[in-house]
Design brief:
Helix content is 40%, strand content 19%. By secondary structure, the protein is an alpha/beta fold. Strand 7 and strand 8 form a beta hairpin. The longest helix has 27 residues. Its EC number is 2.4.2.29.
């Protein structure tokens, strides 16, 4: 029987890198890691039914505290008995604290208390604090909640980043204190921008709190790939080994591989479904633009190596037709395929780690320049 809200088991470490194979136990099911997590911001992964998500073997999905707080609101979620019951999803859910969404708003004021902003729905003033973020996430009832943090822009000045690191630490302590839901795990988030010493400072601060897992935040915010790689190599392996490690907001195969190589376990991104809605497929041979006219007469599947519903039942030519006619079905089929591709991708990554050939797998995959995006 599971004791507490979450248990992490380290199953194997690759002999030639920091890649690791693990397992996370939650009251709503087991998560095999490394894992890609589809994003369901508003309590739904766009255009997909729950049965679609189970067919592609999604083990955990994300919800967003900020958006769910605005609509449908806490009273609706309380009345429904939490997000699992509201959306009829019985597998694990992780919720973002809403910090990234709040900081992406133009009209906001940050103070040590929290972030004051106007609701994008009706313009009313809202003060988002660590305490409110915890109240929202506890009401949602996700299996994993995130501490409220400040995500700074890629070009932020060092002095501001330094202040932000200390503010995030104070908010982390307040989040931990306000979080009282015993069957819900809480992860802390390491910040620090692109300054290695500030990353170390934040890591020391955040890991001093007994969180159930730890995340690297503030990456994939517009920086160059080389900067992401530098911070990942510096910070990833330093996170506690006995707890899950989550890098927020990344979803290309290239960055997933880089993250795994540096000890990360969990990833999420809207990219696969967003690409699908815009007519692009992710495949083992790189991106495929199915809007292109050259696919008009194609009778081949999206990806010969894929076992998803779209690939098993429809051709590139048919999906090209749907996308060109802006039919909803085309967007659904490509969203199903792209998520299945990434889930299969991390499944192969897990196998490679178990067999101590992760670096070979990475090298072989990236030897095709089409896979670097």
């Amino acid at each position: 029987m599971l004791e507490g809200p979450l248990k992490y088991e380290l199953l194997h470490k690759d002999k030639h890198s920091n890649a690791r194979r693990g397992r996370i136990y939650t009251p709503n099911g087991i998560i095999e890691t490394p894992v890609f997590m589809p994003v369901g911001t508003n309590g739904t992964v766009k255009a997909l039914k729950n049965s679609d998500l189970k067919d592609i073997e999604a083990e955990i999905i994300l919800g967003n505290a900020f958006h769910l707080f605005l609509r449908p609101g806490l009273e609706v979620l309380k009345n429904a008995g939490g997000l699992h019951k509201f959306m009829n999803w019985d597998r694990p859910i992780l919720t973002d604290s809403g910090g990234f969404q709040v900081f992406s708003l133009r009209d906001r004021k940050i103070s040590d208390e929290g972030v004051l902003f106007r609701s994008p729905l009706d313009g009313s003033k809202i003060m988002m604090t660590p305490e409110l973020s915890m109240e929202i996430q506890m009401t949602i009832g996700s299996n994993i909640a995130m501490a409220f943090d400040e995500c700074v822009e890629a070009g932020a000045e060092r002095k501001y980043v330094e202040e932000s690191v200390d503010r995030t630490f104070e908010w982390a302590k307040r989040s931990y204190k306000a979080h009282t839901k015993k069957d819900q795990a809480l992860f802390g988030i390491v910040q620090g921008g692109f300054h290695e010493d500030l990353r170390d400072r934040s890591l020391k601060q955040i890991t001093s709190i007994d969180f159930d897992g730890f995340a690297l935040g503030g990456l994939s915010v517009g920086e160059h790939y080389s900067e992401t790689e530098r911070i990942l190599k510096h910070s990833g392996p330093k996170l506690p080994e006995d707890k899950p490690r989550y890098i927020m907001g990344i979803g290309t195969p290239l960055i997933i591989l880089m993250s795994v190589e540096n000890g990360m376990d969990m990833f999420d991104c809207v990219l696969p479904t967003r690409m699908g809605r815009h007519g692009t497929a992710m495949t083992w041979e790189g991106k495929v633009n199915l809007k292109a006219g050259k696919w008009k007469y194609s009778t081949e599947p999206i990806d010969n190596k894929c076992d998803c519903y779209a690939c098993q039942n429809h051709t590139r030519g048919y999906i090209h037709h749907l996308i060109r006619k802006d039919e909803i079905l085309g967007k659904i089929l490509l969203s199903i395929h792209n998520l299945r591709f990434l889930i299969n991708f991390v499944k192969e990554v897990r196998k490679a780690i178990e067999e101590d050939r992760f670096l070979e797998f990475k090298e072989e995959f990236l030897s095709n320049p089409n896979n670097v995006y």
